[in-house]
Amino acid sequence: MADTDSLDATVFDAILLGTGFTQTIVAAALARAGKTVLHLDENDYYGGASGAFGVRDLLKWATKIASTSSPSRDASADKIEFQRLVARSYNNLEFHFHRIETGTADTVIDLTTVLQTHKDASVEDRIKAVEDHITAAYATTNSPSKESKEAISSLASWASTPELGATATQLESVSFSQIQLLEEFLKNTRKYNFDLSPKLLYSRGPLTNLLISSGIGKYLEFKLLERTAVYEALTDKVEMMPTSKEDVFVSKALSLKEKRLLMKFLQFAVDYENQTEVWEDYKHAPFTQFVQSAYGLTDKVLTAVVYAIGFDGNDYATTTEGLKSVKVYLQSLGRYGNSAYLCPLYGVGSELAQAFCRVSAVYGGIYMLQHGLDKHNVDKEANKWQSVVDHTGQTLKANQIICSREYLSKEMDEYIEARTLNRNYVSHCIIVTDRSAFGETALCKTLFPMGSLVLNPGETSIRKNKHTVSVLQMCGGTMSCPNDRYILYVWAESANLKTDAKEDLTAAIRKLVHIPGDPLSLKAPAPKQVTATTPAAPESAEESKPAQHLGDALAAEDQPRMSLDQELDMEQVRQEILQAEKKLFEESENNTPVPSRPSTPAPGAPSSTGSSTAAPTKPLSRTAFQKSKSAASLSMDNIIAPNALFTMFYKRTASWPRVPYPIGSEDLKPLPDNLTVVRPINHSLDFEAATEEARAIFEKLCPGEEFLPPTPEPEDNSGF
Amino acid sequence: MESRHGRKKEQAESPEVLKAREEKEAVLVREYLALKDSLKELIESNKRDNDALKVTTALLRKSPDYYTIWNVRRTILKEGFLDNADDETANKIYTGELEFVQENLKLNPKSYWMWNHRRWCLESMSQPRWDKELAMVGKFLEMDARNFHGWDYRRYIIRQLDLKDKEAKDKVLERAQSEFDFTTTKIHQNFSNYSAWHNRSTLLGKLAEDLSAEEREATVDNEFDLVKNAIYTDPEDQSAWLYELWLIGRGMTPLKAGYVANIYKAQLTNTDLLKTIEERSISILGAYVISFHPLEIVVAFDETIEMRNPFTVSTRVEHVAIPLEGEWKATGSDSELGSLWIFQQAPGAVYGPTVEVVIFSDDVCAVRAGSKLPAAVCYELETLNQNLEDISGRLGRLVIGQNLMYDVTKRIGPVTRPDGTLETQVVNPKHRVTSLTESNSLDDRVALLKREISAVRELVELEPDCKWPIQILSTLLSELRKTISIHSTQAKLIDDECIELQEKLITIDPLRQERYEDRRTQLVFDRETLSIIQDSKRFPEIEFAVKQPSNLDLSMRGLTHIPISSYLLHLHTLNLDSNSITSTRFLRNLLNVRRVNLSNNLIERLEGLQHAPSLEFLTLENNMIAKWEDVVAGFVFWGEGKLGRTGGHVKVLLGNNPVVVNEGGEYVLEKRWEDVGEVGVEIQWQSEELRLAEEAILAAGGEI
Question: Cross-referenced InterPro entries, in alphabetical order (chain A) (predicted)?
Answer without folding.
Answer: FAD/NAD-bd_sf, GDP_dissociation_inhibitor, Rab_escort
